[in-house]
Amino acid sequence: MILEPSVDNLLTKINSKYALVIISAKRARDLQDSGGGAMVESPKSTKNVGVALEEIMDEKLTIDEEVL
């Protein structure tokens, strides 16, 4: 269960639930394969997906709207 950041807040950054899932899953896989290297300072989450969502919320991770 995701508590922070909330889905409603995340949807203000990326306006599609589908795109939100895809970009966070790809970033989580990238974090797993590279062994760390979060783009946010002191992430609250210990899980890679949570870190990816925090990066989206902090606008460190974005999506090119032309791709959608």
Verbal overview:
The chain has 68 residues and is mainly α. The chain has one domain (1-34, 46-68). Helix content is 47%, strand content 0%. It has helices at residues 7-10, 17-34, 48-57. The termini are far apart.
Provide a compact summary of the structure.
By secondary structure, the chain is mostly helical.
Helix residue percentage: 40-55%
Low-confidence stretches: none
Q: What's the SSE pattern? A: HHH
Distance between the termini: 27 Å
Q: Helix/strand-derived class? A: mainly alpha
Shape summary: globular
Sheet having the most strands: none
CA gyration radius, whole angstroms? 11 Å
Mean pLDDT: 88
What would you call the quaternary organization? single chain
Number of helices: 3
| Total number of domains | 1
Could you tell me the strand content as a percent range? under 5%
How many DSSP E strands? Answer: 0
List the helices and strands and how they pair.
Layout: H1 7-10, H2 17-34, H3 48-57
Helix pairs in contact: 2-3
